[in-house]
Every structure is written in structure tokens, then in C-alpha cells.
Amino acid sequence: xxxxxxxxxxxxGAVLTFYISENKKQGAVRASALLxxxxxxxxxxxxxxxxxxxxxxxxxxxxxxxxxxxxSSKTVANQKTIALAGILFTIIYINKNEVFEGYGGAxxxxxxIALLASMGFVVFISKTNETKQQVTSFIKKILNKE
Length: 146
Prior knowledge:
The protein has 146 residues and is mainly α. The protein contains 5 helices and no strands. It has helices spanning 2-22, 28-45, 52-69, 79-94, 106-145.
């Protein structure tokens, strides 16, 4: 259940930051800072509301995924890709072990990896459909000539 809640947090962090940045014209830094401040203050003021694991990790996941939401709409066309990146970030965060321990910028690095992977996945899927259509039309042309 904790993992599910963290994944939902990751999706919300990325998508809400992107929405406020692009649709409400607040800018990426202001949107990320405002939302991260709200979430951080909430869990600072109410630490007993959820179990200690979630109280510790929800603000961290939210801040990390808000970095994903800072991407420009010129770079990422839709919110589905950003939501996918939020999910990937959360999975990386949960399974990171000690890989990023002691390095500055670990959340930003994980956000970059998640965003880049999700953008690559979207491009791969779109190219796969194009390639399938091209191969299918090529086979049809060959079969019709014979």
C-alpha cells in the first residue's frame, strides 16, 4: 500500500507542477517551489497523520517529481508522458538502495533519468507503429504484384 501511495504522489507531483507552470502561467520554478512548500509544510505540521515511512518519503518523492513537472511544454507534448515519468521516478526512488547516497543532486538526477526514459519510450512506441505500418504496406505491395 505504501508503494501505491508513493506512485500516486509521484504522478501528482509531476502533473500538478506541469499544469501550474504551463496552464496557470506561473513558471516552472515557482510552480515547483509552491507545491513542494505546501506538501513539505503539511507533513511538517502533521507528522502523525500517516505512518512514519510515508511521512518521510512523500515529501521527497513530491519534490523529485516536481522537477519532472518543470519541463517545458515545447519538450513534452502531453501530460501522459509526464505522469509516466512520475511513475518511473517513484520506482527508481523506491529501488535506489545506496546508489545515489552521498551525491548532491540525486533527486534531480533521478528525475532526469525518469523523464528521459519516458520520452524515449513514447518515441519508441510511436516509431514502432510507423514501422509496422510501413512493413505491412510493403508486404501488401509485394503480394499484390505476384
